[in-house]
Amino acid sequence: MREALFVKQNAAKWEQFENMQSNSPDELADRFISITDDLAYAKTFYPKSRTTAYLNGLAARLHQSIYRNKREKGGRFITFWKYELPLLFKQHEKQLLYALLFFLTFCVMGALSARYDDTFVRLILGDSYVNMTNENIQNGDPFGVYKQADPFEMFFFIAINNIWVSFLAFTLGIIFSVGTLYVLVRNGIMLGSFQYYFFSKGLGWDSVLVIWIHGTLEISAIVIAGAAGLVMGNSFLFPKTYKRMVAFKQGAKDGLKMIIGLIPVFVAAAFLEGFVTRHTGMPLWVSCSILAGSLAFISWYVVIYPNRLHLSSKLTKLHHGTEGRI
């Protein structure tokens, strides 16, 4: 894009940011993000121009405004969870969809492989796990594996393992997204064969009511971690109008924020697995309530709320733009 066209498209916004005062930390943060995006583009394509110098000065003033604002300094944690992370989910909704579809595809492949190959479940889950579960089924306690360890110890090690898997899914995205896809394939096949195993034993719905108490949050978080890896990997493969390294750094930053945002989800999933799933005889309504609540939270926070927030942001910008023209 030629510099004159770039300036023409954004001049009104820059003038508005420069002249319109605001004490809102959220508004200041939105302006700063917008200006730094424009500044990064200008530095890439017009590094020695007056436009770049102007944007650099405007970004510096906005930065100072943000850190002079005590409310923003005190509420950074809240801002991240309330606005920044949900908007990242909206911004990278395609990667989230691709990760989900890829994961579900290999779940189905894992289930079909287990159905048509008697040895497949043992290959994926291991002989020791299958033998132990068969013994538990014979003893009338098919989900006894969740009762063997101390609840706190189980919670701690599961939380650490889940967080490790999420970071692995993210960091392997650096291998042109292929590493992330491998993690999704592996976990998808494992889940599909695991779930089919219980259905083949006539315990399918029982397993759903028990295992998915923690599995809803855990599997959702793995898919989101996969999306974070795709965000980083695809930013290098498809940099659009930015230089490849500029795009890659932004993709890595966005993906890392998504991973950090998943830590409480993994901790909650580990808590449910360590302290709640072991109560396999709980009333049906309790199990269904936990499942429905977990699914509703993920659907709301990752899909519904980000779309509402995005729509609200667009309407606010439209309103400010109309006021500026008046």
TrEMBL record:
The name this protein goes by in its record: Membrane protein
Pfam families: SpoIIM (PF01944)
Highest taxon in the source lineage: Bacteria
Entry's transmembrane regions: 96-116, 163-184, 196-213, 219-238, 259-276, 282-304
Coiled coil: none
Matches recorded under InterPro entries: SpoIIM-like (IPR002798)
Keywords: Membrane, Transmembrane, Transmembrane helix
